[in-house]
Amino acid sequence: MEQSSDTQRDLAVCGHALAAGEKTRRAADGAHDPTPTPYFVLEDLLGTLDLTSDDHLLDVGCGAGRVLAYFVGAGLPGRVTGVELDERLAAEAAAWSVRYEQVRVVCASALDLPLAPYTHVYLFNPFDTPVLRAFLDKLEREAAGPVTLTHMSDNGEWPAYLGRVGWSMLREGTFDLPGEQGDCPQHFSVRRFVP
Ligand SMILES: C[S@@+](CC[C@H](N)C(=O)[O-])C[C@H]1O[C@@H](n2cnc3c(N)ncnc32)[C@H](O)[C@@H]1O
């Protein structure tokens, strides 16, 4: 049977296809389903960030680790950390990535993770708006320098950014991604926060 190119890319870095199509076990905490970002989207959103060896990317809600796998497979410079609330998913991501020294996985809520080390943050629809607001408040308090934040969501993340000081929009757009009922437009924004 022919494997999708995303599966092949998972296999090349992780040794197995990463979990997809699961329902969240943490809905009571505002968590969304652990849907992996397609590789072609990561190439556009993260592959164009011009990361350097001094940069540190945080994937907020890393699931089984698709963003971490993209980071390794694309040979991006710097480091990447994934934080994941769901213990089973965090364990899967930690197990395959242990061989890559530039990758770290933390099993925790993003609301409990110190955010000062990160120069770049990626969110693919990880949680409900109240959690997003709390996360942005925390990032504003803890950022040690400028942070580039890339956010993709199908549920309108933009109101959470309204009225905030220190943020500027670098670019925005949409991707049509396959959903349960046909193609589902996902809005993305790339913003810069300067404390
Ligand atoms: C849509 S998936 C994104 C997976 C991965 N970032 C990617 O783009 O391929 C969202 C993930 O965020 C996780 N999540 C939700 N709330 C969280 C929180 N407060 N802290 C850490 N992870 C969280 C969910 O468990 C889920 O695995």
Q: Report the helical percentage.
A: 25-40%
Using the 3D structure, state the CATH architecture.
Answer: 3-Layer(aba) Sandwich
Strands across the major sheet, in which order? 3-2-1-4-5-7-6
Give the CATH H-level superfamily: Vaccinia Virus protein VP39
Major sheet summary line: 7 strands, mixed
**Number of helical segments?**
5
Number of strands: 7
Q: Could you say how many structural domains there are in total?
A: 1
End-to-end separation in angstroms reads 51 Å
Q: Tell me which oligomeric state these chains represent.
A: single chain
Please state the average pLDDT score. 94
Ligand inventory reads: S-adenosylmethionine
Q: Radius of gyration, Cα only, in angstroms?
A: 16 Å
Strand content: 25-35%
CATH class (first level) name: Alpha Beta
What overall geometry do the principal axes of the alpha carbons give? Answer: globular
List low-confidence stretches: none
- Element-by-element helix/strand order: HHEHEHEEHEEE
What structural class results from the helix and strand content? alpha/beta
CATH fold name: Rossmann fold
Protein architecture, described:
This protein has 195 residues and is an alpha/beta fold. It has a single domain (5-193), classed as Rossmann fold. 26% of the residues lie in helices and 27% in strands. It has 5 helices and 7 strands, in the order H-H-E-H-E-H-E-E-H-E-E-E. A 7-stranded mixed β-sheet has the order 3-2-1-4-5-7-6, with helices on one face. Strand 6 and strand 7 (182-193) form a beta hairpin. Helix 1 (5-14) packs across helix 3 (66-73). It starts with a helix and ends with a strand. The mean pLDDT is 94. It binds S-adenosylmethionine. S-adenosylmethionine is lined by residues 24, 26, 31-32, 34-37, 59, 61-63, 66-67, 83-86, 89, 109-111, 124-127, 131.
